[in-house]
Write a structure and sequence with these properties.
The protein is built from three helices and five strands. With about 120 residues, the protein is α+β, with helices and mostly antiparallel strands.
Amino acid sequence: MAKAKSVDDYIAGLDGWQSEVVTLVRGIVEGSAPDAAASIKWSQPVFEQNGPFCYVRAFKDHVNFGFWRGAELPDPEGLLQGDGDKMRHIRLSSPDEVESDAFAALVRSAVELNEKKGDPTKG
């Protein structure tokens, strides 16, 4: 994939189901965090409000929807994967795996944590 300059460019560079998944996730994030800014950082779409709170990144056979403070997020559905001190992600292999309500709740919680604790990249 050529280096994307915007989230739209990033999505345009994806094929089939990956484009659909990233578009769906983007819509959930934008609907749940309307004041968030979206840009390309670290070669992926990153959503920020008082610092980055989530990202979406396409790989060859899946898409990750990740959260900077994922280890701190309430996850009653058990969707988040990872075992580091901070970040967690959801691994998606199909648009059917996008769970709008659960993803929206995670986004809102991630924004709330950034508002309370500040930019996760600064501490």
